[in-house]
Structures are given as structure tokens and as C-alpha cells.
Amino acid sequence: MSAIVLLILGLGGMAAGYWVYSRFIATKIYRLDPDFKTPAHEYEDGVDFVPTNRFVLWGHHFTSVAGAAPIVGPAIAVIWGWLPAFLWVVLGTVFFAGIHDSGAIWASVRNKAKSVGALTGDVVGGRARSLFMIVIFLVLLMVNAVFAVVIAGLMMNFSSAVVPVWGAILVALIIGQLIYRRVLSLPVVSILGVIALYALIFIGPSVPIQMPAEVGGLSGNAVWILILFAYAAIASMLPVWVLLQPRDYINGLQLFIGLIVLYGAILFLNPTVVAPMINGDLPAGTPSMLPLLFVTIACGAISGFHGLVSSGTTSKQLNREPDARFVGYFGAVGEGMLALAAILAATAGFASFADWQAVYTAFGAGGVNAFVEGGAFMIHNGLGLPEATAATLLTVMAALFAGTTMDTGLRLQRYIFQEWGEIYQQKWMTRNVPATLLAVGSCLLLAFGAGGAGGTGGMIIWPLFGTTNQLLAGLTLLVVTVMLVRLRRPMWYTLAPLCFLLVMTIAALLIQLRTFFNEGNYFLLFLDFVVLIAAILVAMECASALKRSRAEVARQG
């Protein structure tokens, strides 16, 4: 199978989804109104509520939701074969992720930019809100703790990426000032920013920075984790226009250029997909494809974390309600394109099937390294770029996305503590600094409390991320579906994905429950049981809320 065929089919399907299906959803289902006054204008404060150009906001939204997950998940899932991963990424992007992300933005904008957790209390009920807040906290805890490990590992393994990764922050700060003080037009700033970013990428291999193996009794990896959380804490409290928006915007442009380079290499090289279409010779211990495919590939098909970003930060910056289609749905398409690139790099970026098998020796193999090494192989052989430079480009791409997700994730975690402060009337928790310290402290407690001096504690609970994250997506679709019922609009476009996710998530949780029990991993067994109970209760809340809403609509005639 030629990788070009998969590339054309995948991009063609996503393009059709955006131009046709998303227009139908935006105009007929969500009915996005250009005259509706968005919370960004109603509550504008120059810090969190800031009306934003839709292209800049798309950059923030897309890079915040992307992270490393749309690379890691697909690059692991191809162990079952390239066809299941390919179909779930393309169909999931078009019929699941797009309506989920744009729907979460629309629901939040129509309710004073409340986060989806707080909104659940108004739309569904107090019990559902309590469940939602617990699930949200767990997802954010996992994302922040694990992405810190991922970025630290990339900088330890690829010292040439350190200068570009941290230099991008300085570039973003300058871009933020140029855009919002209107010193230069957006196109000019965009060109200058991209040039600066890629100059750093080419400089990186010449100025490698290697963290010592041990610093003050801590491993080099642990030191990077501490530095990353210190940075994320500061970034999460700055006004969004200072760092968050410009960094995410320029990273979004960098990703598209990176994708063009990678896709261009595929067109020139015309590599063969060496991985099997359906893998009938799975390594020992590989779990069943159904239902675990649908929780292994979350970001890139549909992800509950997207709903947190959509309702937590994006809705507070939406200039016009119709922008939700471009920012939300096209943001999901951008992530689908990244997931497609990961599939191609992890299946066609090897010289032979034997080389592919040598990497995929067990479930969980592949991941970011397969993406970087496979992508660098294709770029080097297709475009002639030095393999070290190509590897640096792809490493920086992965690290910058993980970093922007951390920035947004910690800001969202701060919002959670502030919302808890409001719910339980703890005024001190509603302030930025205490809430941020609580967010950072909880992540560090997991990282170092459970992981020891290495700071890798987040990896301990990471096996539950997929199921917990998809449960969160189901909860978000529940909120959107109930709103549609109350507005007397068709609900099947969100209800069908909601039911599918709940069935797959509960089935995956049951499989994992048995696995953890057989392994004697009682900590994960306990957490899995908690999430399973939450999933069952959520399913019951779904049925109850929808029944109440339909009965209410019927009474009103």
C-alpha cells in the first residue's frame, strides 16, 4: 500500500467533513448567530476574557488540544494494523471530534463562558456536576504530570531541541506585543515569527544543551520537570494575550509547515506502508483491539480534554459565535491531520516490515520515538534534509505542542480550584495565586510523591488516561445533547457519538479492571473501579436528564 493513497484519502475525508458536515452542524443544529454578544465582549477584562482574531484563537485552541497525544496514541495503535487506526482517526475527526469541540464552545458561550464542569450543574444536575469535576480533575492531573515527563524526556534525549523549545517562548512574547499593540499587521508578524522559529530549529543542533545526569541529588529529568512546572505556573497567570495566545498561534503555523514538510516528503519519496493492514501476529500480551482502539486513540479522533479547553479558555476569547465552527471544528481537523501524519510516520517510515516489527515488540511500543524516527527517515530520503535536522524539527514540534497543552492545562486546573472555591465558599481559593499553587502542588505531589525522585509519578496512572478522557468526552456531549433537546433541535448528531463513547469506555474499563487485578496492581484497580462507577452513574444521569428534558419540552407543547 502506497502512503500517498492513505494521505489523499485521509485529507480528502477531513476536508469534506469541514466544508460540508461542519457547515450543516453550524447552521442547522447549533445555529451559530453572528449577532450574539459573546462573553469575550460582555465580560472583557484584558486577562482571560479577550475578543480575539479567529486565526489567532484557532492557533491557541488547536495547539492547546493537540499536545503529544495525537502523536502517541496513533503511533501505538498501529500495532493492530494501519487500517483500524486510519479509519478511526478520519471518521472520528469528522463525526465525533468536530461536533464535540465546536459544540463545547457553543454551549459555553451560550452560558457566560462557564466551564463544561460548572455548566453540567445547570444543564444536567448537581450530582452530574460532582462526577464531572472529579473526572476533569483526574484528566488534568494526568495530562499535566505526564506531559511534563514527555517534554523532559525529549529534552534529555534530543539536546538539540532545547534552544528551539525555550527560544519559542521569547519569540511568542515578542509576537504578543507586536500583535496587540498593533505595531505590525498579523500576516507580517506571522511571517517573522515563523522565520524566527525555524531559525532556532536550524541553530539547535549546533548549540546542544545537555542537562547533567544529576543535579543536587535529583536526576536531570526531574530538574527539567521542576523547571517546566515553574514556567507553566507563571504562564498560566499571565494575561492570555501576553504569552498563551501568541505562543499557541505561532506553534499552530509551525505545525502546518511541519505537516507540509512531512506530507511533501511522502509525495516525493512515495514510501510503502510496511506495517500490515490488520496485524494477525500480535506480540504476546497485546490487548483486544475492541474496545481499546477507541481509548488508545483519543486525541486525533475525539478527546474529552478538548471540551475542557473549548469551555475553559477558548469560549472566553471567541469574538463572534460563528467563529466556533472554524476554531472548534477546524481545530479538530488540524489534530486529525497530525494523527494521520503519526500513522504514516509509524507505518511507512521504516525500510522494511522486519524493521517495523523490531520496534513494535509489545503493546505501548512506538509512540513519539516512532513518529520522530520514522518521520525523519522520510524527510531525509524524500527531501534531502539532514536526518538530524529533520529529527530536531519533529522533536520540537512534539515538545512545543506538549508545552502549550501544559500551559493551558495548568490554567484550567487553576479554574477548577477556583470553581471549587466558589461552590464551597472558600474565597481564598478563588484567587489566582493560591489556586495556581494548589494546581502545581497537586501535580508535583503526584509526580514526586508517587514517582520518587525521578518525578515520573504521572506515568503510574497514565494507563487510565484513555478511558477517563473518553468518559469526559461523553459527559461533554451529554451537556450539548440536553441543551439541543431543550431548544427543540435534532439531537441524534450528538447523542449517537455519546452512546458509542459510553459503551466503548465502560467495556474498556472492565477489561482494564481484569488486567489490573491479574497483575496485582491494586492502586490502579481501585482508580479504575472509581472511574467505572462514575461512568455507570454518568450513563444513568444521561438517561435521566434526557428523559426529563424531553418530558419538559412535551409539556410545553
UniProtKB/TrEMBL annotation:
Family the entry assigns: Belongs to the peptide transporter carbon starvation (CstA) (TC 2.A.114) family.
Localization per Swiss-Prot or TrEMBL: Cell membrane
Signal peptide: none
TM stretches of this protein: 85-109, 130-152, 158-176, 183-203, 223-244, 256-278, 290-309, 329-354, 390-412, 433-454, 460-485, 492-511, 523-546
Positions of the CstA N-terminal domain: 3-347, 364-508
Keywords: Cell membrane, Membrane, Transmembrane, Transmembrane helix
Top-level taxonomy: Bacteria, Pseudomonadati, Pseudomonadota, Gammaproteobacteria, Oceanospirillales
UniProt record, GO biological process: cellular response to starvation
Gene Ontology cellular component terms for the protein in this record: plasma membrane
Topology versus the membrane: Multi-pass membrane protein
InterPro entries registered for this protein in UniProt: CstA, CstA_N
Full protein name: Carbon starvation protein A
Keyword ATP-binding listed: no
Statement: the UniProt record of this protein carries the keyword Membrane: yes
